[in-house]
Amino acid sequence: MPKILIVDDEPHIRLLLEQTLEELEDEGVELIIAENGEKAYTIITEESPELVFLDVMMPNMNGFEVCSKVKKELNLNDVYIVLLTAKGQEFDKEKGKEVGADIYMTKPFNPDEIVEKAREILKL
To answer: 30: how many CB neighbours lie within 10 A of its CB?
Structure first.
């Protein structure tokens, strides 16, 4: 069963992503939710989700740090990481590439694009 991890410290964004992706649950996808980077890192190491929607700006451990640990330290290249941020600045995109993010999407995001991207990555 493919797993998608949703990580954001803002409850309304988590809920929006969950509602956006819940139609995939009918196709056998499990949705996992984390409200911070530390929890996300633990879930990634224990559950190995195929796809992670990861917020950049979070307290304690931000999205860049989580991504770097997953991709550079653990070498989990089969975990597809989508960095989500409110900033569309080139600096952030460069940093996202440096830490190994697979793609970078800016908020506010288009729910249809999120579902389309998830289907494409999970080959649904």
So the answer is: 13
Tell me the residue type at 62: N
The model carries a pTM of 0.95
Cβ contact 122:29 at 8 Å: yes
Structure tokens at 45: 């190491």
Class of domain 3-122: alpha beta
pLDDT tens for the chain, residues 1 to 124:
999 999 999 999 999 999 999 999 999 999 999 999 999 999 999 999 999 999 999 988 999 999 999 999 999 999 999 999 886 677 778 888 999 999 999 888 899 999 999 999 999 9
The SS3 of residue 23 is: helix
